[in-house]
Amino acid sequence: MSAVLESVTPSRAANDAPHLLSDALLDSIGRRAALYDRENRFFSEDLSDLHDANFLRASVPVEFGGLGLTLPQLLREQARLAARAPSTALALNMHLYWVGAALHLYRQGDTSAQWILEEAGAGKVFAAGHGEPGNDLGLAWSSVKATPLADGGYRFDGRKIFTSLAPAWDWLGVHGIDESDPQAPKIVHAFIRRDAAGHRTVKTWDALGLRATRSDDTWLEGAIAPRDKVIRVLPAGIPDDPFVDGILGAVLPGLGAVYYGIAKRAFDIAVESAKQRSSPAIGGKTYAYKPLTQQAVAQAAIELASIEALVDRAAQLWWTAGYGEDEPWIADLLAAKQHAVDGALRVVNLALKIAGAASLSRNHELERLYRDVRAGAFHPPNADAAHEVIGQAWLGVLGKV
């Protein structure tokens, strides 16, 4: 990661600035979440409203039609959105991390991905084509074949999974492996237009939680990325490049913010329930007076505070280039994400305990949050891979084992 980034003046300069997403908008979005979940339906109305609220271009620099929010400011809005509609927030994190990757380069004076900022500023939607069945190496490898073309473009063939925003994307960012030189395979990062030939969506998404993301499969069957939409061609293996760094610097804190939002909502619902439910065992007082309820609320509150602090710290350091050259920044970003998804699960479990058996009902919001929060462990890098990388980074053996 570059130690010095160019200054970008945001339109909102402090974390205590007014919220971009109004409470009224979030209430409207929240009322739709249960129906989307029940019908396994994409969040089309949410997307339209968030377009109108400028959320999708919130972190795009002002000069490209955006609002210029900093990463910490953006995460605050993501968490608020996730509290009311986890699927919507999670899916849009895929769009926002492409903007974040391009912004990371732009702030260093690298304009190779500036067109992403321009397209996002113009209202275009980006989705991520990184997931692949059986690929536990992530961006270090690919099962999708990338074939170089004479004009510098690439043809892509293979299957992508978990393509959130499948019904709505304008640009799909993909990676594939170029093995034209078997002794030196390369990973190709590029973008495919929606109106290009050679890709199709297969409706496979019917999951336990996060159902409204519509993370269907995408088959690439000769899809062409032209030369000017090929962002990077890197040696296969653990990537060492500012563009990939930028992806990680956006997606990992973004995931942390989403799962913090889920946990905060579950906590708020549970606390309100404890204040309302009466207990004959203590003379009709509410459960708020029960010592075990107080203990569970305290445990959840402490967990929430630690999640928020760690995610915010990682975002602040990334945005300000606050990591020293000898600091394992990737370990810090992964720790924030991993602590958020693990801690959010603990908070939601405690919330159900606090709220009681009513939370098991399919009509109860906590039941949906209980299902949604369980996806956190599987976002790449998954829990096992994240712990490996964190340990290797601190031990100084990352990339050497």
Distance between the termini: 21 Å
Side by side, the strands of the main sheet go 1-4-5-8
Overall structural domain count: 3
Mean pLDDT: 95
Q: What percentage of the residues does DSSP assign to strands (E)?
A: 5-15%
The total count of strands amounts to 8
Q: Could you say which structural class the secondary elements and strand pairing correspond to?
A: alpha+beta
The global form is globular
Give a structural overview.
By secondary structure, this protein is an alpha+beta fold. It has three domains: 23-124, Acyl-CoA dehydrogenase/oxidase, N-terminal domain (Butyryl-Coa Dehydrogenase, subunit A, domain 1, Orthogonal Bundle), CATH 1.10.540; 128-235, Butyryl-CoA Dehydrogenase, subunit A, domain 2, CATH 2.40.110.10; 242-395, Up-down Bundle (Butyryl-CoA Dehydrogenase, subunit A, domain 3). It is 45% helix and 13% strand. The chain has ten helices and eight strands. The protein has helices at 23-39, 44-52, 71-84, 86-107, 114-121, 242-276, 291-319, 329-355, 365-372, 383-395, and strands spanning 126-129, 145-148, 154-163, 171-178, 186-193, 199-202, 216-225, 230-235. A four-stranded mixed beta sheet has the order 1-4-5-8, with helices on one face. Strands 2-3-7-6 form a four-stranded antiparallel beta sheet, with no helix packed on it. A hairpin with a 7-residue loop joins strand 4 and strand 5 (186-193). The longest helix is centred in the middle third of the chain and has 35 residues, at 242-276. The chain is globular and about 80 Å long. Residues 255-379 form the Acyl-CoA dehydrogenase C-terminal domain. GO terms for molecular function: acyl-CoA dehydrogenase activity; flavin adenine dinucleotide binding. Keywords: Oxidoreductase.
